[in-house]
Hints:
The chain has one domain (3-218): Isochorismatase-like (Rossmann fold), CATH 3.40.50. It has 8 helices and 9 strands. The chain has helices at residues 16-19, 34-47, 67-73, 135-143, 156-169, 186-197, 206-213, 215-235, and strands at 3-12, 51-56, 59-60, 80-81, 100-103, 121-126, 145-153, 174-181, 202-204.
Amino acid sequence: MFSIPGPVILDLNTQRDLLSADGAYPIFQVDNLADPLKRLFSFAHRNQVPVISTRLNNLIAPGQRSPSAVAALGGGPGKLLCQPGTLGYQKMPCTLLRRRREWPLDCGTSLPVDGFHTVQQFVFDLPNLNLFECPRVDRLLSESTAEVFLIAGAPLEWTVRTAVLGLLARRHKVLLVSDCLGMWDPYEGDMALRQVESKNVEWLNAEQVEERYGLAARHRASRAARAKARAARGNVGSVKSPAAGLPAKQRGAFRI
Length: 256
């Protein structure tokens, strides 16, 4: 469907309920993600990198706690979070680009024919933590090609792991932005991390992403590739014509 020559950022569930300290169910060490996310999206804005964003919608936080325990603790597993119309449902301001299009939570699969030519960001609502159960996201990620998908967001033990495994199954190149990932449970997050690492997925932080995929770096790589191609053409010897060594008469010369 879409062929994107450069990288694409896959931004997963960067909402206030997860990424704010006063959210309904904040991730572990939530304060560590703010600055790297700002840097990543500043890089996307400056370099016109397409962004595919997801947003949880009326999610019941996963876990095994009883309703009485949830009521006593005031949050945690079992609590309803990311409810539309609330502050926690909104994405963090730094993760929203000016040219974007938001898609409702439905079973449709339609997508714009012009792709990312008129907008830079798509925002999709998810029915649950598995992003591939949203038909539009599944179609977009299955039928599109890109140089690499840069994955950021949360939670690592649920949506991020599903995204990595699903993209690899669809034969996409995947790169994880290490300082832009969050987890709810450190133990479960560590287990997910081990599973992802076993797939030989590359890791870079936000600063390294900018150094590798910024416009300046891409221009340098393009110039180096053109120089290499010119050098390769120059090293190829000219092919001698079979008739070059024959006398003029045998080559069909004529006189006026």
